[in-house]
Structure formats: C-alpha cells, structure tokens
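For practice. Any example?
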Amino acid sequence: MKTQQRTIDFAGKDFLLSEPFSTKTTLPINKQMPEERPDFTIGVTNENHILWVKEICDVTLASALARGTGISGRSPEMLAEKIKKGEAIIAFATDGQWAGFSFISSWDNGQYVSNSGLIVAPQFRHTGLAKRIKRRIFELSRQKYPDAKIFSLTTGLAVMKMNHELGFEPVTYSELTTDDVFWENCKSCINCPILMSKERKNCLCTAMIFTPEQNVSQI
C-alpha cells in the first residue's frame, strides 16, 4: 500500500482542536436543545485499520495548523506500522465513520512510553470522545509497559487536564527520555530552535509524566 511521503505531527505531542459545531437547534422558547452525544466503538488497532492513515494524517495536520502549534515529523508509514502492531487506539461512530485516534511509543528500552497524536475528527469534538481515547491509550500503555514511566508533551489545556485526572504530573524536560531518536523527531517542528537553544531543557510544550510506583492504584 502506498502512502504519501509528507511528514506530519506524530512525535510525542497531543493535538486537540476546540471547534464548536456549526449548527444548533433553537426551541421556540429560545432555549437550546442539548447536543446529541453519539456512541462510539473504541479499541486497539490492527492491520485492517491502516486504510484510515491518510484521514488521520490530514485531520491531525489541519488541527495543528489551525491551532498554530509546532509540527514534528512522523511519516504515514510509521503510523501504519503503529496501527499494524496494535500500538494505537482508534474510535469509530456507530455509522462507521472514523472518529478519533492516539498511539504509543516506547523509549530507552521500555523505561519510558509516550502517549501521542491524540486527535478527534471535527464532527465528533465536544462529545467526550477525546477523554475516552485518552483513558484507553493510557490503559494500553500500562498493559504493554506496566513498569514504564508514561509521558506526554502538549500545548493543549484540555489534554493537560485529562493527564492530571489520570495521575500525570508536570515535570521538567530533564525527567523525560534521553533517547536521541525521540528528540530527533522535533527537528521539523517550527519550535525546534527554541528547544535547541535551551539544550532540550524546555520548549513551548508542557511535559507531564505518570510514574507507576507513585500511582499504584491508577489503571
């Protein structure tokens, strides 16, 4: 299967674009009806989900650009490999539409795991789906790497709140992986000069980490 060679954001960063629904129904008494919250099927990926790579890439790129966030390089081929290996979570609406995604990567021989690439399709934002995917990708990380420290880099307040609820705490970059491969992925990000000027000690993203021994009851 051929995929585009374009590089997009999939390197240890979570993107969640706040975007209201374009239409609302108004009652005669000038009260708005509650927005319907669709149900979703959320699960671990397999090779049958590779066909959704392009849509995931396109929506992630559009969200990052709309928010003005940095974009670090990850190829569609890499994403397809994550999906095939079951190192990602994917969500679908009841009518079969792709609805959301996130993936994991391990670093330093499994000592660290990053939760990355959280994205929800525009039509399903503000439904609580992002929080459900975040929980599932966290559970997948704990199942595959029970002793690993799980970390997340994000500029999004919503993601920070979700991380906090799961037991993540803000940390300095010095507490993250030292694996050069992870940091190499930041080179295509527009904010990379900031990261390099600070010797990888700080940037615009907030670093958060979950430490298993400090959160023995979390899962």
Notes: The first helix runs from residue 53 to 67. Residues 1-13, 15-34 have pLDDT under 50 and may be disordered. The beta strands are 8-9, 13-14, 40-44, 73-74, 88-93, 98-107, 112-120, 149-154, 169-171, 206-210.
